[in-house]
């Protein structure tokens, strides 16, 4: 078992962290650090449809304040979640010094627009003068390689200005990253992807590790939420019993124990507290991680961006 006093720091190589204070930071390829566990402002916390235009939503502010209060420092936002103002209000009300927080936002995956204007508007809504991570939410806005490369160059300029400490991508396949790397001066620090046992993306992880690009996993608990009744149910339950915890922690730990950052969300204070207090106490063995991966590969399920992928596209 790993020593709590170890100074080992995880990076994009995929080596998992040791046990110890949680969440540990992962070192990105630009030297910055990202907390391995994040509280997400999308999915159940976003303002969708008619609600997008509604005034400040107090419930989102209160839940985000609560997440910060129980110890979440990595906050995952996006322009399309339509709640950057709520995220900013929660940050301000939390009174946590700005440098102790890690704030992410993202530019639309699908819309052609001025990157500088979109970024300035995000900062304004957040009430911040910089973000820790600015992501391309997806590659689908671009009709050509040049368009994708140009938006990446825009992010590089934003990073150079100091208004985003790190820059990265989300929902990118290997081919999209290869396109960026042809012209990039700064490689993406991270690729934020849907990742859980039912969507392991074939060779993408290996490719990212070889290129020193970290991964953050969204929708990690899909086997418990949108794809119940699948082949990992039994092993998650059995491991939850073994470690005296719940299946949710097993799902999150399966990502962490592959050296990946993980983004979840919850409306429940007890659940968020439990992740912080129990995740450091458990560590899946390499065999347990492999068993879950193998069972997970028996089923394919994608919750997000289904209109961009074929029904059996596992990349
Ligand atoms: N880049 C992208 O394209 C993209 C796409 C999607 C999401 N994201 C980011 O990732 C974040 C997390 O995504 P996600 O919400 O899909 O993450 P998730 O961690 O897979 O799911 C979180 C949900 O799981 C529920 N849950 C936890 N344990 C459970 C259990 N034992 N049984 C049943 N339900 C359980 C929680 O409900 P309770 O509220 O009841 O606890 C919560 O609503 C988003 O907020 C967003 O920031 C990014």
Automatic annotation (TrEMBL):
PROSITE patterns: ALDOKETO_REDUCTASE_1, ALDOKETO_REDUCTASE_2. Pfam families: Aldo_ket_red. Substrate binds at residue 137. The active site is at residue 81. The record marks 106 as: Lowers pKa of active site Tyr. This is NAD/NADP-dependent indole-3-acetaldehyde reductase. Residues 40-295 form the NADP-dependent oxidoreductase domain. InterPro entries: AKR (IPR020471), AKR3C2/3 (IPR044494), Aldo/ket_reductase_CS (IPR018170), NAD(P)_OxRdtase_dom_sf (IPR036812), NADP_OxRdtase_dom (IPR023210). Belongs to the aldo/keto reductase family. Residues 1-12 have a biased composition (Polar residues). One of its GO terms (molecular function) is oxidoreductase activity, acting on NAD(P)H as acceptor. CDD domains: AKR_AKR3C2-3. Residues 1-27 are annotated as: Disordered. SUPFAM superfamilies: NAD(P)-linked oxidoreductase. Keywords: NADP, Oxidoreductase. Gene3D superfamilies: NADP-dependent oxidoreductase domain. PANTHER family: 2,5-DIKETO-D-GLUCONIC ACID REDUCTASE, NADP-DEPENDENT OXIDOREDUCTASE DOMAIN-CONTAINING PROTEIN. It comes from Tolypocladium capitatum.
């Amino acid at each position: 078992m790993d020593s709590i006093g170890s100074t080992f720091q995880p990076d994009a190589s995929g080596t998992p962290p040791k046990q110890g204070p949680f969440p540990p930071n992962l070192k990105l390829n630009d030297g910055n650090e990202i907390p391995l566990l994040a509280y997400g402002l999308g999915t159940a916390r976003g303002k969708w449809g008619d609600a997008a235009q509604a005034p400040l939503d107090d419930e989102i502010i209160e839940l985000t304040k609560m997440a910060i209060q129980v110890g979440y420092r990595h906050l995952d936002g996006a322009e399309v979640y339509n709640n950057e103002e709520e995220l900013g209000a929660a940050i301000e009300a939390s009174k946590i010094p700005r440098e102790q927080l890690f704030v992410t936002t993202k530019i639309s995956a699908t819309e052609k627009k001025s990157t500088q204007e979109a970024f300035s508007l995000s900062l304004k809504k957040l009430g911040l003068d910089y973000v820790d991570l600015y992501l391309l939410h997806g590659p689908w806005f671009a009709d050509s390689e040049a368009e994708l490369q140009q938006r990446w160059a825009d992010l590089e300029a934003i990073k150079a200005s100091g208004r985003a400490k790190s820059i990265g991508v989300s929902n990118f396949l290997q081919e999209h990253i290869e396109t960026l790397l042809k012209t990039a001066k700064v490689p993406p620090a991270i690729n934020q992807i849907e990742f859980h046992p039912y969507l392991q993306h074939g060779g993408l992880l290996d490719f990212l590790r070889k290129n020193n690009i970290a991964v953050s996993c969204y929708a990690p608990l899909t086997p418990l939420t949108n794809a119940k009744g699948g082949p990992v149910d039994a092993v998650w339950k059995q491991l939850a019993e073994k470690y005296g915890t719940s299946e949710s922690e097993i799902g999150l730990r399966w990502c962490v124990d592959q050296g990946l950052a993980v983004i979840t969300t919850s409306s429940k204070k007890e659940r968020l507290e439990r992740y912080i207090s129990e995740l450091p106490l458990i560590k899946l063995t390499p065999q347990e991680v492999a068993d879950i991966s193998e069972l997970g590969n028996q089923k394919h399920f994608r919750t997000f961006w289904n209109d961009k992928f074929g029904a059996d596209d596992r990349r």
